[in-house]
């Protein structure tokens, strides 16, 4: 499959007609391209350009390609962005852009999302301590990106606006070939280093910035503690008088699909890491308070603990440091503006969701693998939750998969047994993807009582028979996260019969790219295979396994510091089926009405195979 083709653009300044004309021209001569990413100021810098800008926003002229922008300030920005924020389609957890109009999306605050297989991270607007609603980012957004640096996977593209006006990240030209540095560009010793610190932690393959008024394609540089290089691109404004390059085309292969040898290749002109290294210091007991409160936000990375932290006697402005809570240390030490709270750290170590600790709620939905209730001492990551009946009831109410929970998507349930039930997947890879879920609140299917295996295997056999009538085979896989609360990943993904023989090889190749080898289990029947699988499973580690159409089971125990993508199984099958754009379930969401229609149709067809009929 060909790699995605992306156009990068500098400050637009509201000149959408000129941008659209250039996109159409480049797309015709060198396309087709998949998307446009804009950095720097997007909105007009003068009232005369507002009408041209609003013609696109209000639909009188069209934007030809999906276009994403940061730099959410300028004339007309508050009106346009406020309307977008209030749009019901933009509410909730949306790191992949708030829709402004057809083919135009606002990347708000900071975040990370998948675009045609590429991991894109961003920080939007200008730095501010005063909490403006639009056009700025806060310390919350900066710390969100620091947290992203700890997540598995390499960030392909990082979009930034400078921390201070007219400054690129401090140190970007250090070590670069002097003759290639544009005239007038120099690093100021007094400039803020926040962006360069972020780049050093995130280690993107491409770092793209605008606002300097010129084009600069820096030589690639090596990263610390990473094998891949980073390329910095500074882009000029649209329609600039000096005719500096304002649009640049790239076609990067997603890092997630590259081999170790490919990702570690260094061009001959690679330079050393240009930015200053922050020395790690031990956290102190007395932490500083955050400088100011930011506007409340519905996105995931918002460190508002005003509700949850009352029991610790903290004020409404107190914030938790994700670095400290998740790892026990923070490289910023005394400079950190967030709380290094040991009790929060203990709750996190017992498997409690960071958002739940911080805000008293979690907006990640079915993707969250953590507990949504405070845990007593002794309740670890994979405990069977043997606490009080009230605690168990509370967990069930907060669990997306407990049938007694008000959060459960009951319209997706297609069959109900004694120990397990089947439901269609939300945001499925393929329309008839099925989940086999324990009725009891259990972290995985391998720690379930052995007598429940009979019902699980019966569900698997029924699904195999059903899909065989459609000339399909079924792949079952489970990702057991040691922080997990309720098993929901005994996924049954139907694939065309013609692709069944390739499943084993593509999983093995994907494992090699990740740097590990599967343990292979072969057995005469399903019961024996799962018995051997149980013998391998150690609840002190996360664990992944996949059951192939020929009965072979591939398994892998994830080491403590090993980075393993939670969506590994889905991503591999998305590649097998040439559906890379559906690797993320959030790209595949359906309306509730559509989900109900699909579920009803599935139940009617599955009825004669359903073991509980």
Structure description:
The protein is α/β, with parallel strands linked by helices and 613 residues long. Helices cover 24% and strands 16% of the residues. It has 15 helices and 23 strands. It has helices at residues 16-30, 50-57, 77-86, 139-148, 194-202, 260-263, 322-327, 342-349, 354-359, 389-398, 453-468, 503-514, 526-536, 568-576, 592-606; strands at residues 6-9, 35-38, 67-69, 98-101, 104-106, 110-115, 118-123, 126-127, 136-137, 157-160, 206-209, 216-217, 221-222, 229-234, 247-250, 413-416, 420-424, 434-438, 472-480, 490-496, 519-521, 542-547, 553-558. The protein starts with 5 loop residues before the first strand and ends in a 7-residue tail after the last helix. 43% of the residues are buried.
